[in-house]
Amino acid sequence: MDVTSILNKLNSAQEEAVTSDKKHLLVLAGAGSGKTRVLVHRIAWKIQVDNVSPYSILAVTFTNKASREMRERIDQLLGMSLRGMWVGTFHGLAHRLLKAHWRDAKLPENFQILDSDDQLRLVKRVMRSMDLDEQRWPPKQAQWWINGQKDEGLRSSHIQEGGDPYLATMLRIYRGYEETCERLGVIDFAELLLRALELWKFCPDVLDHYQQRFQHILVDEFQDTNAVQYAWLRLLAGKVSAVTAVGDDDQSIYGWRGAKVENILSYERDFPATHTVKLEQNYRSTSNILQAANAVIAKNPERLGKSLWTESGEGEAIALYSAFNEHDEARYIADRIQSWVNLGNRREDSAILYRSNAQSRVLEAALLQADIPYRIYGGQRFYERLEIKSALAYLRLMLNCHDDVAFERVVNLPTRGIGDRTLELMRALAREQETSMWGAAVIIVKEKRMAARATNAIALFIELINEMSGQHDELPLAEQAEHAIAHSGLVEMHRREKGERGQARVENLEELVSACRNFEAEDNDLPVLPQFLDQVALDSGDRQADEDQDAVQLMTLHSAKGLEFPLVFIAGMEENLFPHKMSIDEPGRLEEERRLAYVGITRAMEKLYLTFAESRSIYGSESFNSVSRFVRDIPKEVIEEVRLQNNIARPTSYAAGAIQSDEGGDTGFGLGQQVFHNVYGEGVILNFEGNGPRARVHVSFEAVGTKILILASANLSAI
To answer: With left for phi above 0 and alpha for psi between -120 and 50, is residue 221 left, alpha or beta?
Structure first.
């Protein structure tokens, strides 16, 4: 490959980023500016032009999907496979590191990774042993707190109670959780990163080895790094490695889960003589959409600064719709989508974005009523489904019978007569003997410590797992899975379920066997089952939607990061909803809300609708909020206010934040007014056609939906 082919189709800023010979590089990549192209081409440039060994390059991404895409594009660009190059997520690379240096990391050789559900189950177990009331001390809150401390690089021993009863209890749980994980040889996702950081800190010879090896470090989505990830990178880079950071401070929206925008804002200070390149040419959206995004984000004071532009033309104006309430808003969105589909467009090319999950209920109802298929993006995925997690637990027990989390998940699934009382006695024995649940089960059977019925049930389970484990090294992975699923009784159990759900569960178990059959091991010299289970655990850290039929995509604004759609609706553009009421009085959180608005706007490629409601019932109460400040920040010349009826004038005056409505002429009724009909019951006025007694009125009734009535004969009464 020659230089021309590497630089082909790059704009001047992209070319500058790809070819820069500066040691440290910060690429500020605006939304839709081609950052992945820059990363891939910079790696190719280093290998082909600068003669850098691919094995001295470390490339870090945030999702497994992104790392697979990067590797594929590098291979395609260079025309050869670079399987040995370290390209992966922070968690994936940390796992690879710990697997190679398990002794130095003070881990068992076959340590297991806990996913979020299994971690929560272990936290509950620890809290039960402390006799803590789950109503007063919610286990999920304790799980979140523990992960938050790890993201900051803090062990329980690093934290002082300071006389705070809440902190004292959280610390007790954290200590107990640490001890339990250590005893069981398991680690959670946050522990992967913290343990890898501690490996650098406490094993200088290991750190020196990797510092000498990785002369070039490239990091994608740098604005999303947390404290542990940034510390890990800085230690690895040391004073030798050249670092390329690619990110966008304007798209830092994950502060609530530990990401620190300060990392990218202080990058030039922490990595001296950094060369900064701004990618501002956008290849996704129209000029009107970018003008709106630029205007919104410009109000944030702490920015590195850039302004998106495009050569794709002005495009359509941004549509702004003022709804009477959330039902009117949802119906309007459904109607616009149906009209768009009627023009030959695909539903999956449209997305409805919202700030709060609670907004989706009404939107879903409107889509159902309009018979428009939809999908909640990021909903329950394959490996999170109940039947799949149960099957994986059996596979984990085949590999390691002392895996307590897997043991507790399936010891009585299908039902074997091993109840809660039996399990509690087993746990007590495990604590007393300092052994695993499996070890306790073996003691119970051997010494007949329980009633015959319980002892026999436990003995049959032990026999089942031993029989499965005997197939571990003899059968291919798919046959191991097939054998485990069949002999465990899971398939038969789900076949007995009524309706489509049971059938779907059986089909999912069959699909797991297919996944095993198609799995490609990284290392053919190692057993395939542990590699498969490790990959499943790592994949569960991603938030990717399942592929399905052609359907409208619904998602939170946070979930929309990294996606793009020709048609986008952002619903609920109101003060206290977006920006969220919990963020308005805190500058740091309000700035993140503004970045979230910027992300939402820049998801739109061709057409963007912004909608808000004059009144909204949400969280169990009705609210009357003004239009969002983010709407008021957008230049008037790029916004087109929607009018459903030409003879109804309803100026929004969004620049001032005021909402004004036509009162229905001389009909005696107003838009949004609650009314009563003798036949249809209570309803809300949505629209008028004409004036006076002969006017036609559109009313949404709770019992029968929307009706169009003649006022003169409708006998409506105001409520």
So the answer is: left
